[in-house]
């Protein structure tokens, strides 16, 4: 079983992304395995144990609420994933607190991207590799469908659970952010 942490998107915007995914199923290599969210911490060092849950809850509680602004669509260089960027100093502070604390407290080896190189993002579609040549058209269509990009206050850190590697990630537990 895997666990991960993310920031849920505002419900109306998450619905808009889901409608776009449905409209563009011919672009997708497979159906998405999670609701729309902004990833912030991968599985390393996370579990549903009381100690793990308590550690994440404490980090979330100590974190001041912050805002996120979603930004222009892009496609990762190494992997054909269409995503929206994230502009938020608060996201970075929470990401560092999670990675540093969980690594120290659990001794788990963090993924190299978590330590250095994570690109905060909201995944929109995992593209069929043969569509890489249509990158400009895909980005333009994504931005047209999903603009204007929202700015929103973050009040929840959500833990997701995946029962096995090919399963859908499901909401497992919400941790309130701030006091």
Number of helices: 5
CATH superfamily: Cyclic phosphodiesterase
Ends: how far apart?
A: 30 Å
Task: Order the strands across the largest sheet as they lie in space.
Answer: 2-1-7-8
What name does CATH use for the topology? Cyclic Phosphodiesterase, Chain: A
Structure write-up:
The protein has 179 residues and is α+β, with helices and mostly antiparallel strands. It has a single domain (2-176), classed as Cyclic phosphodiesterase (Cyclic Phosphodiesterase, Chain: A), CATH 3.90.1140.10. The chain has five helices and eight strands; from the N terminus they run E-H-E-H-E-E-H-H-E-H-E-E-E. A hairpin with a 5-residue loop joins strand 3 and strand 4. The two termini are 30 Å apart.
Brief rundown of the structure:
34% of the residues lie in helices and 30% in strands.
Structural features:
179 residues, alpha+beta, Cyclic Phosphodiesterase, Chain: A, four-stranded antiparallel sheet, globular
Could you outline the blueprint of secondary structure elements for this entry?
Layout: E1 2-8, H1 11-23, E2 37-41, H2 50-62, E3 66-75, E4 81-87, H3 89-106, H4 112-115, E5 121-126, H5 135-146, E6 151-154, E7 156-162, E8 170-176
């Amino acid at each position: 079983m895997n666990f991960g942490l993310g920031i849920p998107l505002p419900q109306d915007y998450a619905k808009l992304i889901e409608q776009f995914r449905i409209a563009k199923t011919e672009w997708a290599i497979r159906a998405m395995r999670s609701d729309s969210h902004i990833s912030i911490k991968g599985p390393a060092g996370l579990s549903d144990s009381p100690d793990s849950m308590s550690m994440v809850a404490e980090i979330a509680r100590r974190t001041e609420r912050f805002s996120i602004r979603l930004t222009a669509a892009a496609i990762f260089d190494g992997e054909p994933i269409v995503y929206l960027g994230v502009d938020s100093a608060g996201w970075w502070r929470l990401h560092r607190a999670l990675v540093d604390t969980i690594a120290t407290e659990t001794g788990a080896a963090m993924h190299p991207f978590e330590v250095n190189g994570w690109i905060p993002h909201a995944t929109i579609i995992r593209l069929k590799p043969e569509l890489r040549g249509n990158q400009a058209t895909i980005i333009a269509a994504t931005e047209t469908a999903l603009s204007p990009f929202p700015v929103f206050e973050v009040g929840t850190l959500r833990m997701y659970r995946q029962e096995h590697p090919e399963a859908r990630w499901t909401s497992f537990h919400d941790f309130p952010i701030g006091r």
